[in-house]
Amino acid sequence: MPYHYWNTLTTEDFFSFSPDRTVVVMPVGSIEQHGPHLPVSVDTLIVDGVLKEMLKNVPESYTALVLPTLPVGKANEHIGLNGTLSLSMETVTGLWTDVAESVFRTGLKKLMILNGHGGQSQAASIVARDLRVRHNALVVSVNWWSVRDKPTIFSEEEYTYGIHGGAEETSVMMFLHPELVRTENCRNFVSNAFLQKEKFPRLFSQGILHAWKAEDLHDSGTCGDASIASPEAGQDIVKSAAESLVDLLSEIAAFSLPA
Question: pTM value?
């Protein structure tokens, strides 16, 4: 079997996994408000859904070990709206580090941190680098959406500004969990960043990472055009993301340190 769920194994099972041909996947999500149309569990549900699709295509040439998803992350940009659960930077990096170090104690040395929440991408990168330095391990942090080919389902404008509860996330939820999407509340939540871009072109240009709270972008806490979302688009998004992640996982399995 090309993949196993960590929590289903016995302590003796871990002796059978080759450190060179085994990649451990640590899914990390978030519980945070996603406006009036989506549940607070979006980022955790999506990372689990993409992971499930990815595992369907893992080849027999190596093994993927999947850790239990860590559902609560760093989401303090959303704490101004009800339902958000957030850990501090110190807590989330400590949690992820402690779990990873428990993995490395088994002798396994390849880890993919599969992230479902953009607001904690930097935290994942910091943890990955520290683990690399301290444990001489191969650690890769990746957002589920970031390795696929550039999508063309929606407009460039929507991909730039519809970053939270917009067309893409709503479509994926319509595909994975349609029963949780309140379609009657789906509308175009126009981002304040889009409205301000002409007045402040440099401040709101690509590559500028300025601090923001969810309310800064839209008073609903979300931004993007949820009204154009569809389950068909969601299916395409999940499948393309999963295919790209399988490619990445395969390369991690094949890669040797040092290189």
Answer: 0.95
